[in-house]
Write a structure and sequence with these properties.
4-stranded mixed beta sheet, globular
């Protein structure tokens, strides 16, 4: 390798090293929304490629997993749909964890459908109810913290609860009972809820510092397992309003 060639090689290596370590920062960001509808031209090749996967997914999602007795609605301060879901979490939490579970709570926004109609319920409908991969976790919280959680639920009109009853007055939780016993602010209660709430979601910042007991069990799987449990017991999917949450007169 002659002197000129050597010099050129060194220069090339220098610029290659500089280019590999150059950091770029965007100066501006622009986006455009594209609406996809049936009037747009379809790519046959892409459709043919995706068809086997689409058929498989649709087949799975359309599989019937149970029967819903009556149409269940989402509503405040208590609803059949909310009770069904929180009962599923309360029941399965007691089965999946070795801890004694005192109650369960579900935020109102965690109910992703406004209605679960009577008739067959499919895999797809369960995914609609719980589309996110939230975990069903436990937290041991002082009674004072549970009071804050229930006060927030009351402030928002009432959330689904299981193992707990309460009344709402002036947007606060009163006459609370846990397991049928009067609420004790000095006690420690083990509550089943979602990792979303435990991480401070829906303004529950008071839960962020409390350790989470988790085994990776998904809330969606809890719904599936609860439906299977009901079916094994010869029962259909259903729930009633039981005055778990009422407005104080």
């Amino acid at each position: 390798m002659n002197r000129i060639t050597s010099l050129a090689f060194i220069v090339l290596i220098f610029f290659a090293g500089v280019s590999c370590n150059t950091a770029y920062q965007s100066q501006s960001l622009q986006y455009k929304t594209y609406r996809i509808n049936k009037e747009q031209q379809q790519d046959t090749a892409v459709l043919n490629f995706l068809q086997p996967y689409s058929d498989n997914v649709n087949q799975k999602m359309n599989e019937v997993v149970g029967v819903v007795d009556i149409t269940m609605e989402k509503d405040h301060p208590e609803s059949a749909l909310g009770n069904f879901m929180v009962d599923a979490f309360f029941t399965t939490a007691k089965e999946k964890y070795t801890e004694k579970v005192d109650g369960a709570i579900l935020n109102y926004g965690g109910i992703r459908l406004t209605q679960l109609p009577a008739g067959t319920i499919t895999n797809g409908k369960v995914f609609e109810l719980m589309p996110f991969d939230n975990l069903l976790i436990l937290q041991k919280m002082k009674g004072t913290v549970l009071q804050q959680v229930l006060d927030l639920a009351a402030y928002n009109g009432g959330w689904p609860i299981a193992g707990i009853t309460m009344q709402i007055k002036d947007k606060k939780a009163i006459n609370i009972k846990v397991g049928g016993k009067p609420f004790d602010a000095a006690a420690t209660y083990t509550i089943a809820n979602s990792d979303f709430l435990a991480n401070g979601g829906d303004n529950l910042s008071m839960l962020k510092t409390i350790p989470q007991i988790t085994n990776g069990y998904l809330m969606r799987d809890a719904l599936f397992d609860y439906i299977k449990k009901l079916k094994a017991e010869g029962k259909n999917v259903g729930a009633t309003i039981e005055k778990r949450v009422t407005n104080a007169e």
